[in-house]
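Continuing the batch. This is chain 6 of the set; chains 1 through 5 are on the previous pages. Same settings as before, nothing changed between runs. Recording input and output for traceability.
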Amino acid sequence: MERPEKAKTLFITATDTGAGKTFFTLALARALSSLGLSVAVYKPIQTGCKPNNSLSSLGSEDLELILEHCSKDFPELGVKCSYCLSLPATPELAAKEDRVEINLQKLQNDFEDLCAKYDVVLVEGAGGLIVPIAQNFVMADLISSFGCDALLVVQNKLGCINQACLSAHYAKSKGINLKGFVLNNISNSEKENPKVLANNAVFIQEYAKISCLAELPFSLEESLEADNAKNLEQIILGFK
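Output for chain 6:
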């Protein structure tokens, strides 16, 4: 499906849950906002939400984190989550547990509404590409429905080559334009073999045939550093 022409969009997916999508989305949202662009972060579905969330009425902890670190410097930043579900599981299972029906047209409408209002819409998925959203509909299908280019966040660790290559090949088989990948360095990297960490990106580029567009720290504190924007220059060029 073709998306509205006004906004530039990017769907941020990952090799796994906990790979660092939200930290990367936060860093990119801040970098793009600093250029004077109006930016929205859209989380179609968030699972594992606390039923009595006291932080805000949003319900989405990922978006709350982004707002917490963007609202002061970039008050115009937009955020939206269509479905906040309590069970930390796939959206399809979490929706069944909460007795909620995920309306795919609502996801499309919410996405298009943001595209009509902002220069840039960053969409953060849940988990990886084959996470079930509804019957016979996975995260990759949502990317295709939105008509977005995608970017893969890869947690830099032993085993990520296989995860990244399988994700990349699956994305291509679904006709998704995967612009490249971002390597997120895990906070306990001292437990990993440095030779492995240093060569993961090389092997992923060789076997997945996609480019490493940035290598970023995993920790929130380092993601917020001003100098971090320099690591995102290759990605930011696509939004200018």
